[in-house]
């Protein structure tokens, strides 16, 4: 039995290595997902002459942006004109830090600040309209449900990963790899949710820009918060694959070892 025992020890080391790598990937993907949810750079707008745009609109740009009655078209126009960024929870624009809006433009260029407004829960579940800003144009179901999904899916993803981590702790306490299969399945589902989040966000942005095209002097691009979510999805899938492989292969090896000893 010695040769087989040596082989079994080697296989145990492989399982342990796979589990360690899977845990590291899971931790990194969790950090990336949490960071992407909590930051405001999912999509960024860059204007060629932001100061001049603010000068033309005066203080009304900021007042309309923060108004409780601001609709989608109002704050999107402000994002276009003021180097705006959009996250899952907040929207931000760059405005003059100087409170005196009549100050010379030269001062504004060296004294700008980024101010943000959070989306409330009612904003997250608010209906989107076929013509943004026109409540009489009817509900745009595609954009409405895409917006709601992009708000819910990241929390579902994080919840699945946390639940999978609890199962993993139980597996460690029981000194068994069998529960790792459930951990892998939960990570796989979390990866699907993250992938769905990325798809919903891209589709929602594209549909919005069809309704409200970007001005000629505005450039839009996906930001680093969006990239973190994109990276998190494959990490979750790789962690899921390692968890499931380690658990299933260990079970097969244990079955073969048991059959060998019986024989």
Automatic annotation (TrEMBL):
Keyword field contains Membrane: yes
Keywords noted in UniProt: Membrane, Transmembrane, Transmembrane helix
Membrane is among the record's keywords: yes
Localization, UniProt: Membrane
InterPro entries: CLDN1, PMP22/EMP/MP20/Claudin
Transmembrane parts of this sequence: 15-35, 151-173, 185-204, 224-247
A Pfam family of this chain: Claudin_2
Protein name: CLDN1 protein
Organism whose genome encodes this protein: Asarcornis scutulata
Gene from which this protein is expressed: Cldnd1
């Amino acid at each position: 039995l010695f040769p087989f025992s040596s082989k079994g020890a080697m296989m145990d080391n492989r399982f342990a290595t796979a589990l360690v790598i899977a845990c590291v990937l899971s931790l990194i993907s969790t950090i990336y997902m949490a960071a992407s949810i909590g930051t405001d750079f999912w999509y960024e707008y860059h204007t060629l002459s932001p100061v001049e745009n603010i000068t033309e609109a005066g203080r009304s740009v900021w007042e309309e942006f923060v108004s409780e009655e601001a609709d989608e078209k109002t704050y999107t126009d402000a994002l276009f004109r003021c180097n705006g960024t959009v996250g899952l929870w907040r929207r931000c624009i760059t405005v003059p830090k100087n409170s005196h809006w009549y100050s010379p433009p030269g001062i504004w260029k060296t004294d700008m600040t980024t101010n943000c407004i959070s989306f409330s829960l009612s904003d997250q579940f608010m209906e989107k309209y076929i013509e943004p800003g026109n409540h009489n144009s009817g509900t745009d179901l595609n954009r409405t449900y895409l917006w709601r999904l992009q708000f819910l899916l990241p929390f579902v993803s994080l919840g699945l990963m946390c639940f999978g981590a609890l199962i993993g702790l139980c597996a460690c306490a029981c000194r068994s790899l069998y529960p790792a299969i459930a951990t892998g399945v939960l990570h796989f589902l979390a990866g699907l949710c993250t992938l769905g989040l990325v798809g919903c966000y891209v589709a929602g942005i594209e549909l919005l820009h069809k309704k409200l095209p970007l001005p000629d002097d505005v450039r839009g691009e996906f930001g680093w918060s969006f990239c973190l979510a994109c990276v998190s999805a494959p990490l979750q899938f790789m962690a899921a694959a390692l968890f499931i492989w380690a658990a299933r292969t260990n079970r097969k090896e244990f079955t073969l070892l048991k059959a060998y000893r019986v024989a």
